[in-house]
Amino acid sequence: MVVVYAGGNIEVALTSLFLNPITLSGGVQQIFVRFVLFYTMGMGVGLALKAGLWNIGAQGQLLIGMVMVFLVYTSLGFLPWPVLYVAMILGAAVGGFLWIAVPTILRVKFGANEIVVTILLNVVAINFAFYMLSGPIKSTGTALGFPHSIELPAQFQIPSIVSSVPITYAVPATIAIGIILYLVVERTPFRIKANTVGESHETARYAGISIPRVMAITMLAAGALAGLAGATYLMGYRYELDIGSFSTNYGLVAIICALVGRKHMLGIGFASFFFAYMTIGAESMALSANVTTYVVFAMEGIMMLGILLGNYLTERKYSV
Amino acid sequence: MTVALSDILIGVFSTTLTLSPFYLFAGMGEIVSEQSGVANMGLEGIMLMSLVATFIADYMTGNPWIALLAALAVAAVVGALFALAAIRLRMDQIASGLAIYLLGLGLSFVIFNVVYPSGLTPNYVALPPIIPNWNTVSYVGIIFLKQNVLTYASIVLVVLTAFFLSRTSLGLRVRAVGENPKAADNMGVNVNKVRFLATLFGALMFGVSGFYFAGNIVPGFQTDVIAGNGFIVLAMIYFANWKPYRMLFAAFSFNIVYAAQSEYVSLSGSGMASVSTLFNMLPYIFLLALIPVFGRKARAPKFLLKPYRKG
What we know:
The complex is a heterodimer. By secondary structure, chain A is mostly helical. In chain A, about 70% of the residues lie in helices and about 0% in strands. Chain A contains 14 helices and two strands, in the order αααααααββααααααα. A two-stranded antiparallel sheet of chain A has the order 1-2. In chain A, a hairpin with a 2-residue loop joins strand 1 (about 160) and strand 2 (about 165-170). In chain A, helix 5 (about 60-75) runs parallel beside helix 7 and helix 13 (about 265-290) packs antiparallel against helix 14 (about 295-320). Chain B is mostly helical. Chain B starts with a helix and ends in a 17-residue tail after the last helix. The chains are: A mainly alpha, B mainly alpha. At the A-B interface, helix 6, helix 7, helix 12 and helix 14 of A face helix 4, helix 10, helix 12 and helix 13 of B.
């Protein structure tokens, strides 16, 4: 509908939306890159949501994670290869962890609203990443005048599983993290603890659950996961940081995935795959039907409203 | 090159006064909306939609007042969509707000692209300053007289909103449905109708903010042009503790820091280019630093974010 209004050809549009992601070269790779990104961030957002906390700042934590990859790479360059490789990945997670520590402390110690703080920190993170690009991690070569970072050398890139198919080891690693989190979160009493805190602090207090502890664990894990997503995105796909990496708010897409996956650690995986597929489809549709790729955001918004409406209808069916 | 201190101060204060109405209109809208129990996180989406309506109407008619009407009409439609989702259908307020944001972010650019595929547009006709030859008058004149009528309207709006919420019966009903909808319902208040009206008022004010942004802050359409500044309104309201007059303080102090850093960066010349982004962080860090001070006392309306079901 949006496309037709935007002056596109509906047949071309639909073909590209549903078929291009798998038929076009690079489409499959793109789907899995986005899947890893959405799933890793979405698990964090979903975890915090279980405890009733909104991490609107996943985008900021992602950016800090990406910056940290380069900071570790440039400052700890004396380390031998495998150690540095691991340190870069861990550094990204630590970056996200530290970035979310601010809203976590303010929330737990001062009762400050985490939505407000994570929104503010997103803006700070973007400016910080811009600063890093304009100086500390800036590339010496100038390409088209756009600020961009140094490029990671081949030995620090995450390799493909099979050389002919550009699906990297990040994909099985992310699925493994998903299964581990599923076992640790969904199959233990922690799920009930987090849900109780999310539902009602009063009930949680009665049940003797340590509310600050649950809030801190879920928030900090959310930040670390979003930071980690920065490492897999950079080291597995992008290899360098430029302004293009900031322009899309993947943090919001991660929130949609977490909600669609009903905050379930495996459910979020399916939702992430669906949204990765749809995003690539929508982007290729935008290109072939000659409308702007910004149409993707509008579609995501409409899908999100549709899914919320679906929730409303099913709830009404089963409750009074 | 040395610049007189008075010139710097004039620059800082006039920028502050130019930026603030954007936050004040949206702030009053969001305060009324949140006092009724509905947090509208879609505010920046509504602003972007009104902004694009402003540009198109202004380019086509050359009349900024018609552009304002177009902005209000579009804001009302998108606001009603949000209200339908969050109030009538009792969807999660934060999730439906973010959906409205994404919708506005994407659709605003698509619409602009359809109307002006080449990106070439006629000149924007802005609202005139209240005194047309403001630059012939002295210091204070430069600060106060180059602003347009909306700048002063925004300050009047703060006074009116404060009066409305604390002194009128509809204002008391707005606060009642946000504080204790059950009791309000028992007293015969139509909870969801009051919430709908409050949310619609909020959306209209986001429309004015979008219009103001188009004419006074960034004079041309770009993608994601508001760049998160709409969301900053939510942070300001938190410091303002949902009180209109304190919102005035929050908006002015944030914008003074913003104007001061941008004045400093622009005066320091090209050598500052690499660290200018660090200075850009200052106003946001300033708000963050206030959290432990004001955040403790902040108390949201009790039934904020909670949909109401009769019975």
